[in-house]
Structure formats: structure tokens, C-alpha cells
Amino acid sequence: MSEAEAEYFSKDFDWDDLRNDVEADPSLRHHLLPFPPSASTSPPQDVSDAWGNFHARHHTGKFFKERRYLLKEFPELVSCGKKNPRVLEVGCGNGSTILPILRGNEDVIVYACDCSSEALEYAKEMLDSLNQASIGRRFHPFLCDFSLDGFPMWLACGPCRETSLRKHCCSSEAEEKTETSLRGFDLSKDMSCLGGVDFITLIFTLSAIPFEMMPKALAECCCVLKPGGLLLFRDYGLYDMTMLRFESGKRVGFREYMRSDGTRSYFFSLGIVRDLFLHAGFIELELEYCCIKSLNRRSGKSMRRVWVHGKFQKPK
After folding, report:
1. Which parts of the chain span the membrane according to its record (predicted)?
2. 241 vs 36, higher pLDDT
3. For a designed S-S bond to 174, which of 62, 89, 131, 192 qualifies (C-beta 3.0 to 4.6 A apart)?
């Protein structure tokens, strides 16, 4: 079985068995304790700087491998039956999610945002290095911290966010003008509205923002989706190996941790994910733990990885 197939929807172990092992281990007790509000730290002021520094250190393919498995996990990205479907990749990083989507569907148009300008530059450099005009024309990066500022109005303007979008507020000619103006990083403030996107990919992005900011961020995602549009979600699951490696001093909230470089990670239970998305206005289509065993080649130890897979739809 290939690596991509192994990572897709694998059930190498039962999550409840992992939970029982973790909760019975005294050395992991600090992960289970309530987190007192008085101990909470305020959100870092320079999140974009922290992630910019992170991507500067880890921008090569050796660290972020191309996520080809996502096309099997979310086949809608390849064969959705739409003409020129629009995908918004939130938190694109170095482009490890973007490239498989662009390669897998020759008609798809990808808008990719990140709070780090460094990450966007690396993503653009990676796609430019392919020297494939057909891919470059369909890739539109822009700087945006959706958790703080929301998405720009050219994705979906006020009227589009408030109506069914059956009649877009912009004409096809205006959309074409917008497409053309998006090909650089200096985006015009008066661009015409796209009328929303068909898909949003939120891949290991939501966990990187403070928990208290997640409801607003997801509501913003719902606003820029077309009615019936899908949000495709994959992120860290509760009791994933990465979580269990954090020391008690790294906790900044319940199931929320901060690394020494200032970047964050939250580890989701299915119940928390369900509550967040339903509260934001989504309909749950799929939601489950993805549990796989990964072998550490250096130590020879088997590691239990846990991710959350979800598909959510904006009401039609």
C-alpha cells in the first residue's frame, strides 16, 4: 500500500483504545487537567511573524510533502461536475495542498491565502518553478489573516453574503477582470465581487489560531461559500502523538499548546468540531477520526497519529 493510500481514511487502530491508554498513563495526566481561566495567556500579537519565521525555516518539500492523499479524501475537488470551480485554500503555507488540487483538476481555480507573506512567496516560487502556464493562470495568492480581519469583500461582498447568490452581484465580464487583477500580490481594493467560492479547504489551519477566535473564523468561511458549497476539513485530533509530546508548561488552554517559536496547536475532539461548525451555520456531512500508525525510522517506534476528517456544507 502506498503512503498516500495509507494516510487516506486509515483505521489502523481504534481511537477509544488510544483514549483508554492515554487516560490510564500517569505521565500524561497534565493533558487531561482542566485549564484555569486565570492561567490563560492572551493571543500572541505577532502571529503572522511567528508563522513567517516558521515557514522560513521549513519551506522545503522535505518538511511539507505534497498532500496528494487529499484528492482521494475529498474527490469532489477532482470531479465536482462544475465548470471552473473556485476553491479557497485557507492557510496555504508553502503550497503543499494547492499543487495537488491544481494538478488533479485542470478546470479548477484556486484562491490561496495565508497570514504570512513569506509563506505566500514560497508557494508562488514553488508553482513558478514548475513552469506550467496552465497552473500559474489558475493560482491566485493573497495575504489575509481570516481569524482577525475576515476575508476581502471581492470574494463575496455584503449583498452576496446576505442573499442566496442565485443572482451574482457581478457580471461575467467583471469576474474576468477580477481574475486578471488577482495574478499579483498587490490586490486592488475596488475589485468586483466573485460571488463566493464553491469549496473551502481548511487543512491543518484552524488548530493554529487561538480557540476563542475559531467561531468567528468559521462564520467568515460560511459567509464566502456559495449556498450548497463545501468546506473540507482536516486537522489534529485529540490524543495525537504531537499533543502527547508537549510538556505541561506549553499549555496555553484546554487542549491548546504553544511551541517555543510562538506558533500554536489545538487538538480537536469530534464533539468540539461538530459544535463549532454547526454554530457557524454549516450542515455536517462527514465527521470522524483518522487513526493511523506511523513508523519512526530513527527509533523504530510505532507512533499513533490522529487527525479529524470532516465535510461540511453551507445550506442551499
Report:
1. none
2. 241
3. 192
